From TrEMBL:
Gene encoding the protein: gatC
GO BP: any one term: translation
Name by which UniProt lists this protein: Aspartyl/glutamyl-tRNA(Asn/Gln) amidotransferase subunit C
Family: Belongs to the GatC family.
Broad enzyme group: ligase
Domain of life where this protein originates: Bacteria
Keyword list, A-Z: ATP-binding, Ligase, Nucleotide-binding, Protein biosynthesis
Protein species of origin: Paraflavisolibacter caeni
InterPro entries (UniProt xref): Asp/Glu-ADT_sf_sub_c (IPR036113), GatC (IPR003837)
Lineage of the organism: Bacteria, Pseudomonadati, Bacteroidota, Chitinophagia, Chitinophagales
Job of this protein: Allows the formation of correctly charged Asn-tRNA(Asn) or Gln-tRNA(Gln) through the transamidation of misacylated Asp-tRNA(Asn) or Glu-tRNA(Gln) in organisms which lack either or both of asparaginyl-tRNA or glutaminyl-tRNA synthetases. The reaction takes place in the presence of glutamine and ATP through an activated phospho-Asp-tRNA(Asn) or phospho-Glu-tRNA(Gln).
Subunit text: Heterotrimer of A, B and C subunits.
Enzyme Commission number(s) of this protein: 6.3.5.-
Catalytic activity field: L-glutamyl-tRNA(Gln) + L-glutamine + ATP + H2O = L-glutaminyl-tRNA(Gln) + L-glutamate + ADP + phosphate + H(+); L-aspartyl-tRNA(Asn) + L-glutamine + ATP + H2O = L-asparaginyl-tRNA(Asn) + L-glutamate + ADP + phosphate + 2 H(+)
NCBIfam families per record: gatC
Length: 96
């Protein structure tokens, strides 16, 4: 793939970014390096190599949901600035 000014302009428009001439040259250089790296990877022989779909063989390893130490209602409301004995009281945020 050829990295030229037209490609940089197209990428600039697609990304809605504006670059000055120095930035364009830097981006052109970086893109050429990236494409060169990918081209270098194309030289590897991957015959017989299975694609990597997951980093490990484990799937959805989750712990059991076991209830632990729970607060009583009184303990939960103890430090609440506003409550009515059963519920926390908070300022109204939804207007009708």
């Amino acid at each position: 793939m050829q990295v030229d000014d037209a490609l940089i302009e197209k990428l600039s428009k697609l990304s809605l970014l504006q670059f000055n001439e120095a930035e364009k040259e830097e981006i052109k250089s970086d893109l050429q390096k990236m494409i060169g790296f990918v081209d270098k990877l194309q030289e590897l022989d991957t015959t017989g190599i299975e694609p990597l779909l997951h980093m490990s063989e484990e799937v959805n390893v989750l712990r059991d949901d076991i209830p632990g130490n729970m607060l009583t209602r009184e303990e939960a409301l103890k430090n609440a600035p506003h409550h009515d004995g059963q519920y926390f009281k908070v300022p109204k945020v939804i207007k009708k």
